Amino acid sequence: xxxxxxxxxxLWALQYAIRSIRYLGGNTNTTGGLRLMRTECFxxxxxxxxxxxxxxxxxxDGIPTREVELLAGEVATIKSQDIxxxxxxxxxKVFRRRIP
Length: 100
Fold this sequence. Notes:
Layout lengths: L10 H9 L10 H12 L12 E7 L10 H10 L2 E7 L11
Helix pairs in contact: 2-3
């Protein structure tokens, strides 16, 4: 985690923090990232607001390489908690596909 929403009360500081996130490269653990988002980001202790919809932006190269067999289950859990995921592909290897 780079930060929690509870770390910010100011839009400009949040935008600066987002722009300061470094790309580390390596494997693509989409399942692990989504699980971390669900358990760490979208909870009240870390800044989740009960009155605001939960929306996550998933930036991906489109090819999960770790915990692939668990991805569909994690997505189902996320959907059951009314968290919306918006996917953004960053390579030409991304293709249009809905994860069930």
